[in-house]
Amino acid sequence: MKLKKLMVLTAAFSMAMSITACGSNNNNGGNAAATNAPADNAAATDNAGTNSANTPATTTDEIVPEEGASLLVWESKEERPFAEEMAKQFTAKYNVPVKIEEIGPPDQVGKLTQDGPSGLAADVVLIPHDNLGKAASASLLLPNDIFAEQTKADNTEASIVGSSYNGELYGYPRAAETYALFYNKSLVKEAPKSFDDVIAFSKTFTDKAKNRYGIMWEVGNMYFNYPFIATTGGYLFGKDGTDKDDIGLNNEGAIKGLTEYAKLKEILPIKSGDINSDIKRSLFNTGDVAMDINGPWELAGYKEALGDNLGIAPVPTIDGKTSITFSGIKIFAVNAYTQYPNAAKLYAHFASSKDAQLTLNKLIGSVPTNNEALQDAQITSDPFVSAFAEQAKNSQPMPSIPEMGNVWAPVNAALPEIWDNNADPKAAMDKAVQQIKDLNNGATAK
To answer: pTM score > 0.85 for this model?
Structure first.
C-alpha cells in the first residue's frame, strides 16, 4: 500500500508516552513529503520589500517589535479562547495590541492569497501543514528564520518536517492532530472494534424520527473519510505523497473501502449537507448521538458535557483492517506582506512555546508538538491524549505539495454523490480523479 509507512505523527507522542513504534518509519515518509516537493519556491523574504529593511537578528534577545506595531491574528472558532489568552499575555509582555479574527484554518491560505498583497490579511495565520506548500511556493509567507534553531530544538521532528517546505522552515508548530472515535459510555458500554460493530449497535439505537443516531461524522468531508480510502489500499500522490501524477483515489482498494462507507447510510440516514460540526456537537453533548469521529479540538467541550461518560478509542476497523486516518500539524506562519514582521514573528514564537502549547491543551484538548510539553504530567497522565496517540500510530500525514489543494473540492463533491445520490463509487471517484489531474496540469495547480 502506498504511503503505508508514513506515520510521522508517532514521533510527536513517543517521547512522552512510551509508545512502541519503529523509529525508521516515524520519519522517512514525512521527511519526503515535506522536502521532496516540486522545487518552484520563491524567496518569501524578498516579497514586496516587507523584510528587506528588517534583517533578522542574530539572537532572539535582539528582536523587538516595531514601534507602533499592532497585530491581526487569524484563528479557528473552536480555538478562540486560546487565542484570546495568548493575545492578552503577549500584549502584557510586549505592549503590542492583538486583534483576533475567526477564519477556519483550511480557508486561511486562500484568503491570504487574495488579501495578502492588498494588506488586508492577518499578520499571523494558522494553517494545516498540507497547505504550506501552496502558500510557500506563492511567496505568501516569511521563513521562520530568527527562531529557526530554537523551534527545531524544541519540537518533534515530525512537526518540523510538517512546518518545512523545500528544506526551508516556515512554520511555528503548535499542535499535532489526527482524529479518533469519541463515544458516550452511558450509551456504548464498550467501544466498537469494527464498523460492523458500529452498524450492529446503531440498529438498536438510531431513530431518525427522534433525531437520534448511533454514530455521526462529516460524511461529505474527505478529511474524516480518508480511512475509507486508505485502509483498504487507496492513496494520494504515489510514493511518499510527492508524485502528483500517481493518484490512487479510484483504485481497487479505494473503491472497496468506499463500498463499505456507502453501507453506513443504513444507520445514518441523513443527507451529507445536513451534518456539520455544530449540529453534531449539539447532538453528541445531549446524548442523541452515541459516537462521533472527531479531533482533539472537540475534547475540552466534550469533557465538560459528558464528564466521566466520555470515552475515546481508535477509529473502528474497515473490512477487518486497522483504520488509517489523516494526520497533520497545525502551524502558525507569518504573512509575507505584514507591516510588522518582528512583532508577527515574536507572536508566532510566543504562542507556540511550551507554556502556550500546554495552555492550548488545557483549554482545547490539543496534542502538543513541543518535546518538553509532551513530557509534562499534564500530558502524560491524560488518557484522552493517549488515545489520540494510539490512533496516530496508524495515521498518514497529508501530502504538503501544492497540488494537495486541488484534491479537496473534487473529492468533497464525489462523497456526497455516493452518500446522498447512491452514485457508483467507482464512477464518482473516476470523475474526481480526472478533475484533480486537470487542476494539477493547469494554472490553478499552484
So the answer is: no
